[in-house]
């Protein structure tokens, strides 16, 4: 954490619409357009930057990515995801995961104490429109993302200057968390066995989101059974992440099926960031130092403590390489990668200073 965070590449990927999805090496690739997924993650990073430094240049980024999200919400309160370079969304409704990430970003942004009132108001306007859709979500990760977003929403301070009424009351949001966490707990009961403390019969992408959401649910609901499953599932996935003497995410070329070994490759940057955020949440709530140590090890994955012993940060561009493959590094530098690195850096930095 000694080096200063280089934000050049975040700006390189961002135009007057939002952040580009992909790149050719370190050059933005307009042909791949934009996604709401990437712009809401970028919104979280911009919010972190503004919360940490209170510099108006970061507020400009917040507005840029928020504007993308305003444009992405449809008349039903759901969110379109893929936009082409001509600024046309190519679908009317994105995935459940995209929806959940939007709730996460809106809740987090609105919870920042120094965020201007009317940006908070915009976040809550979009949230109020989205909330009626939450209980219709089908998938565990989207439900988990929503729990995380609601956790932040429940910690929003009353606006000091520009006050409006929000449709989503705290009692209503807490009842949603109770239902979503019950769904996740039900999936755990259905799939667990003697050597498998998990919510599905297969570990795929963004696994860390689920224990993270449960430990936040425990913080909200104070239900011991929720805490128990959160800790059990964390211990289970921790053994997989640290099956070597360093953090190694489950490879996306095969994942991990019950009774089999984890796929070794490809390793993707988003997995290190979400694991780090999970460990930090457990550290904050349970106070055990091992979780902070694990978060540090997740960050070190970016800077060379990984299966190839190679730093994934491009010294020239400031970007983050797109991942570790079996025989090589993927030298493309998409937005998900640099956003993940920034998210990890800014989160851990609060504990290292």
Question: Can you give me a brief rundown of this structure?
Answer:
With 353 residues, the protein is mostly helical. 53% of the residues lie in helices and 5% in strands.
Kindly report the spatial arrangement of strands forming the biggest sheet. Answer: 1-2
Q: What is the CATH architecture annotation? A: Alpha/alpha barrel
Unreliable segments of 5+ consecutive residues: none
Give helix % range. 40-55%
What is the class in the CATH system? Mainly Alpha
What form results from the Cα inertia axes? globular
Number of strands: 8
* DSSP strand content: under 5%
Average residue-wise pLDDT: 97
Count of spatially separate domains: 1
Structural class, by secondary structure, is: mainly alpha
- Could you give the order of the helices and strands? HEEEHHEHHHHEHHEHHEEH
> How many helices does DSSP assign?
12
Notes on the structure:
The chain is mainly α. The protein has one domain (8-352): Glycosyltransferase, CATH 1.50.10.10. The protein contains twelve helices and eight strands. The strands form four sheets. It has a two-stranded antiparallel sheet with strand order 1-2. The radius of gyration is 19 Å and the shape is globular. The relative contact order is 0.12.
Secondary-structure topology with pairs:
Elements: H1 8-13, E1 23-24, E2 27-28, E3 34-35, H2 36-53, H3 56-72, E4 82-83, H4 96-111, H5 117-130, H6 140-153, H7 170-191, E5 202-203, H8 209-221, H9 224-241, E6 256-257, H10 269-286, H11 289-300, E7 323-324, E8 329-330, H12 335-352
Antiparallel strand pairs: 1-2, 3-4, 5-6, 7-8
Helix pairs in contact: 2-3, 2-4, 2-12, 4-5, 4-6, 6-7, 6-8, 7-8, 8-9, 8-10, 10-11, 10-12, 11-12
């Amino acid at each position: 954490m000694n080096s200063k965070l280089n934000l050049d590449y975040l700006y390189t990927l961002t135009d007057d619409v939002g952040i580009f999805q992909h790149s050719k090496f370190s050059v933005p690739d307009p042909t791949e357009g934009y996604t709401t997924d990437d712009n809401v993650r970028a919104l979280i990073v911009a919010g972190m930057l503004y919360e940490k430094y209170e510099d108006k240049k970061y507020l400009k980024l917040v507005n840029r990515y928020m504007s993308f999200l305003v444009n992405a919400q449809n008349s039903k309160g759901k969110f379109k995801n893929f936009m082409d370079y001509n600024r046309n969304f190519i679908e009317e409704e994105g995935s459940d995961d995209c929806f959940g990430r939007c709730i996460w970003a809106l809740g987090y942004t609105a919870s920042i104490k120094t965020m201007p009132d009317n940006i908070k108001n915009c976040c809550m306007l979009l949230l109020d429109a989205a909330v009626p859709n939450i209980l219709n979500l089908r998938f565990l990760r989207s439900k988990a993302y929503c729990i995380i977003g609601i956790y932040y929403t429940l910690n929003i301070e009353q606006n000091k200057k520009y006050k409006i009424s929000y449709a989503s009351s705290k009692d209503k949001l807490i009842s949603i968390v109770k239902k979503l966490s019950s769904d996740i707990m039900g999936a755990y009961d259905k799939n667990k066995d003697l050597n498998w403390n998990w919510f599905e019969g297969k570990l795929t992408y963004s696994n860390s989101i689920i224990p993270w959401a449960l430990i936040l649910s425990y913080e909200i609901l104070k239900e011991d059974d929720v805490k128990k499953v959160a800790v059990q599932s964390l211990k289970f996935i921790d053994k997989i992440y640290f099956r070597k003497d360093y953090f190694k995410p489950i490879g996306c070329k095969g994942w991990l099926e019950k009774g089999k070994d984890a796929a070794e490759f490809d390793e993707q940057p988003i997995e290190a960031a979400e694991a780090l955020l999970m460990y930090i949440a457990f550290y904050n709530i349970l106070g055990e130092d091992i979780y902070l140590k694990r978060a540090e090890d997740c960050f070190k994955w970016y800077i060379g403590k990984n299966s190839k012993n190679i730093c994934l940060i491009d010294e020239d561009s400031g970007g983050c390489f797109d991942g570790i493959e079996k025989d090589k590094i993927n030298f493309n530098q998409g937005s998900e990668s640099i956003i993940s690195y920034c998210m990890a850096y800014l989160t851990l930095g609060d504990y290292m200073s």
